[in-house]
Amino acid sequence: MSHLKGYEELAIPLLKHLSQDQCESYWSQGFLLLPGLIEPGLLARFNQRFVDLVNGTVPLAEGMKIMQDVMVVKGAVTPESPTHGVNKLLCLEEDPVLFEFARQPQLVGVVQSLLGKDLYSLSSNVFNKPPGVDGRHPLHQDLRYFKLRPADQIIGVWTALLPAPRQAGCLAVIPGSHKQGLLAHEAPDWDYVNHGFFGLNDVDVETRVHVEMAPGDTLLFHPLLIHGSGRNRSSDFRRAISVHFAAGACEAQGKDWRQNPFTRHIV
Ligand SMILES: O=C(O)CCC(=O)C(=O)O
Predict the structure, then answer these.
(1) What is the mean pLDDT of residues 67-86?
(2) Segments making up each domain of the chain, as ranges
């Protein structure tokens, strides 16, 4: 119950908040699926912006990077269009369209229900899983990539921009796996591993739950939750927009994490 401290204090009008049952489900399972959280008009705007940035019809904002899929980088696949070659678009903070996602009141409200009022963003991405490449994301815990603690004060959010059925490589999660601490990650023993992807070896994959999502559905997940995604075996793109949030009370060793060039104070 201590995680719910402050929940009743949240009285910001017009913000959507989670119910107590939803909060309890998040803390016990390590994730929470919120169907239709982001409305279709916004999804279309974010999706088109991604396409325009990748096609080069609008310039990349400062700091933003396009990461090509490893099969394209290694010449194993020739993409039929620029979007077919991209694994992710990173660092959305200075993009006036895509970073609106992190400031959506309904998203901020539900994250505040779990982390409290003072929120920062830590990282932001569009995850693009084109048809025709391996594109798997090994089972991992996001805390592997963050120096901030405590883990309970960090949340990942992942909103489907396009349909994410299992066949297209939806997210898979291991319910309750956020309770076992940070595990040792290794580079997967695969022919094609995208840059920076590390995974866990000793995971009982039979306990995986595939989280199929429609556009606008949003998954909130704990940074210790084991999760990943499979190959896209469909002929369509699977695409999502994602931000990690941290409570202002988090701490990291060394210099002030709030001054990181990719960190933004959200509210
Ligand atoms: O989009 C994916 O396939 C994986 C995303 C992921 O692992 C993450 O957001 O941490």
Answers:
(1) 97
(2) 2-265
pLDDT at 7 over 70: no
Pocket probe mutation, ligand 1, options 229, 241, 243, 244, max atoms within 8 Å of Cβ: 229
Closest ligand 1 atom, residue 228 Cα: 7
Angle of helix 20-29 versus helix 105-115 axis, rounded to 10:
70
Name which residue sits closest to atom 7 of ligand 1, judged by CA: 228
The answer to whether 230 touches 168, Cβ cutoff 8 Å, is: no
Cα–Cα distance measured from residue 29 to residue 4, given in angstroms and rounded to the nearest whole number: 15
What is the mean pLDDT of the segment spanning 78-94?
98
CATH architecture of 2-265: Sandwich (2.60)
Residue appearing with tokens 């592997």:
144
Q: Which protein residue has the closest C-alpha to ligand 1 atom 3?
A: 229
pLDDT score, position 15? 66
Given a contact cutoff of 8 angstroms between Cβ atoms, the answer to whether 210 and 143 are in contact is no
pTM of model > 0.90: yes
Tell me the pLDDT tens digit for each residue of 146-164. 999 999 999 999 999 999 9
Ligand 1 atom with least separation from CA of 127: 1
User: Ligand 1 pocket: which of 242, 243, 244 to mutate (most atoms <8 Å of CB)?
Assistant: 242
For the residues 95-121, what does the mean pLDDT come to?
97
